[in-house]
Design goal:
Blueprint lengths: L1 E4 L1 H9 L2 H24 L12 E2 L7 E6 L5 E11 L5 E11 L8
Parallel strand pairs: 1-5
Antiparallel strand pairs: 2-3, 3-4, 4-5
């Protein structure tokens, strides 16, 4: 899955301890496979239950992924977008918005 990262996401990532970065990167690999399958089929059953993919309340078009339940609290927000490659072709992509604990929902 193609992706882009917002500046707040990049700053959030830099604040995470290394072990949490590793946890997120592992979850992101699983997420990317599922996102590719979802784009191809539009079948929501491809989202792994352990990532708890769901819309963020009161934030239209923004979704959350929970990458850690049992300490540390690990969540990320994202949205669908489109990116262009060097030839001008358009591709579905994920825009990672925020990363961290439950407090990211103050400004998802």
């Amino acid at each position: 899955m193609r992706f882009e990262r917002t500046d707040p996401f990049k700053a959030d990532y830099q604040r995470l301890p290394e072990h949490q970065r590793l946890m997120f990167r592992e979850a992101a690999r699983t997420f990317n496979v599922a996102a590719d399958r979802f784009v191809a089929t539009k079948d929501p059953s491809y989202w792994p239950a352990n990532l708890r993919i769901k819309p963020v309340v009161n934030a239209t078009g923004i979704f959350e992924m929970t990458w850690s339940f049992s300490g540390p609290d690990g969540r990320a927000t994202w949205q669908w977008t489109t990116v262009h490659d060097d030839t001008g072709d358009r591709w579905p992509a994920v825009r990672w918005r925020r990363l961290g604990s439950h407090r990211i929902f103050r400004d998802p």
